[in-house]
Amino acid sequence: MFSNPQPFTRFAGDSPMKSNPFFLLPFVSAAVVFSADVTITVNADSGRIPISPYLYGRNNSLSDDPEDPTPSADLKLYREAGLWILRENGGNNATKYNWHKKLTSHPDWYNNVYAHDWDFIARTIQDSLPGAQGFLALQLIGWAAANTQHNFNDWDYNGSAWWGGCAQNLAGGGTVNPDGSDSALADGDPSLYLEPWPADSTAGILDHWFGSGGVGLDKERFLYWNMDNEPEIWSGTHDDVVKTISAEEFMQKYFAVAKSARARFPGIRLAGFVACNEWQWYAWNNSQVSVTENGKTVKYVWAEYFIKRIAEEQKTTGIRLLDVMDFHFYPQTDDDAALTLQLHRVWFDTAWNYPKANGCKLIGGGWDEKSTKEYIMERCSRWLNKYMGEGHGVRFGVSEYGTFYADDPNVTAAWYASQIGTFADHGVELFTPWEWQTGMWEVLHLYSRYAGALRVKSTSTLDTLVSAYSSLGTGGSDLTVILVNRDADAARTVDLQLAGFTASAPSCSTYTLSSLPDEETFNSHTNNALAAGTAPVNGSNVALSLPALSVTALKLSGKADLAIKNPTAVIVAESYETYLRGTNLFLAFPGRKKNITVTVYAANGSRVLRRSFTNSTTADISLSLLPSGRYIVDAGSDLPKRAVVVIR
Question: Measured between alpha carbons, how far is residue 428 from residues 51, 91, 236, 422 in Å?
Answer without folding.
Answer: 8, 21, 30, 9
